Amino acid sequence: MDKFLIDGPSKIKGKVSISGSKNASLPILAATLLFDLPVTLHNLPRVKDISTMLNLLKSLGSKIELSKDKKTAKISNNKNMKTFASYSLVKTMRGSILVLGPLVAKYHKSKTSLPGGCLIGARPVNYHLSALEKLGMNYEIKDGYILAKSFGKLKGGLIRFPKITVGATENSIIAACLAKGKTVLRNCAVEPEIKDLTNFLNSAGAKINWKGRTCTINGVSSLNSTNYSVMADRIEAGTFCVAATLAKGTLEINNLDPKIINTELNLLKKTGAKIKVSKNKIHINGPEKIKSIKNIKTNEFPGIPTDLQAQLMVLMCKAKGKSSITENIFENRFMHVAELQRLGANITTKNNKAYIEGNTKFIGAEVMSSDLRASVALVLAASVAQGKSVINRIYHLDRGYEKIENKLKNIGVKIKRLKR
Ligand code: UD1
Questions:
Q1: Over the stretch 228-281, which tens digit does the pLDDT of each residue have?
Q2: Beta pairing, strands 84-85 & 109-113
Q3: 222, 234, 347, 354: which has the fewest C-beta neighbours closer than 10 Å?
Q4: Residue of the CA atom closest to atom 31 of ligand 1
Q5: What is the pLDDT of residues 389-415, one digit of tens each?
């Protein structure tokens, strides 16, 4: 397994261009299963999770033509698509469950593997299943697979999600596009990635409208060919903003609409960062002394994203004074705490709350990545630590951050990939 060697502390300065959003690309790619005509997608990030989804689509029969830079894909489905999503592909990426809705909506059957466990929490798919059931999907669980079918077309219905969930909202919207009649989804997740999915579907003739957390979908009989550019990755952008704030850095962050990380930028301003935004750009200057924030809480959009929680924890370690972070989305998302302690952090946790002492002088050490965002938090901490750090199991990072070591090198981090 590849490792990163980071020699800190780094001076962060320069420009960074944000890649396409992984979490927007995944549902959009899954939704291409609804189409008879070709779809062209631009600005896909070159990360492992996207290759996994493309492989899953290929295994179902889609033809994928990638551009030279692999950021544009033309996807064409044939007349004899398969409906079997195997465990070997689904287990490596939970987002694969997003093929269930479109397969049943379009082909009226599917055998999709259950995604299985995950380090950050149990992450069941019960809300995906109950919502699709309300649209007319019948299913049973057998040998780790969801065996699903519908008698002809799905039928529009009224669904109120008992809990706000990104994945189940996406699966239901995609499925409802080809259902007969009107579907009303209440208490939806409204993350920008979901809006990007609905913009994509509407660009192909779907009839989707939003009012607050209510999404109304009027089913259509088929979708048109379309050409769509995926939004920028707000978590990658937030991560680089944290990096600049952490390291008294000066960064110009390009290629995104700053509005998508408004909440995060307001939080960073409170820590002392100086931020200017223009149309597709953020200028950020880290403060001399980082101010601590008493109680940061992760929440559904428009709250602070759970996917930025680990990075913000690193920032609070370097802040002047005590702080705390409450994780409200996943039950076990503090795996990075023990590793940050190896770098010198003083953090205690109780249930879903972490108490951070602040004023940490990180010292380089060997650490282990546990999940995507925990790994990037370790990279941030190692970048400002005194001395050398080795970060193991960086395949987690490769799942979601495009060319992260090149981007970090360009802004002054001494980082090297050690191939196994
Ligand atoms: C998506 C993102 C992930 C992000 C998360 C929360 C993708 C590919 N992944 O994950 O990066 O951290 O949103 O913003 O976009 N839940 C259930 N039953 C269900 C579905 C969810 O209990 O059927 C629970 C989950 O365990 C979790 C909470 O609901 O505690 C939110 O999960 P959800 O919003 O569905 O996250 P994902 O779509 O898996």
A1: 999 999 999 999 999 999 999 999 999 999 999 999 999 999 999 999 999 999
A2: parallel
A3: 222
A4: 165
A5: 999 999 999 999 998 999 999 999 999
Q: Which of 106, 21, 118, 24 is nearest to 62 (CA)?
A: 106
CA separation for the pair 52, 66 (Å, rounded): 14
Share of residues in the chain with pLDDT > 90 (%): 93
Nearest CA to ligand 1 atom 9: 23
| DSSP 8-state symbol, 259 | G
Q: How many CB atoms lie within 10 A of CB 277?
A: 17
Q: Is the CB of 329 under 6 A from ligand 1?
A: yes
Distance from residue 120's CA to the centre of ligand 1 (Å): 10
Rounded to whole angstroms, the Cα distance separating 275 from 5 reads 30
Contact of 89 with 95, CB cutoff 8 Å: no
- Residue-averaged pLDDT of the chain: 96
- The response to whether residue 21 sits with its C-beta less than 6 Å from ligand 1 reads no
Active site residues: 118
Q: Is 137 in the pocket of ligand 1 (CB under 6 A)?
A: no
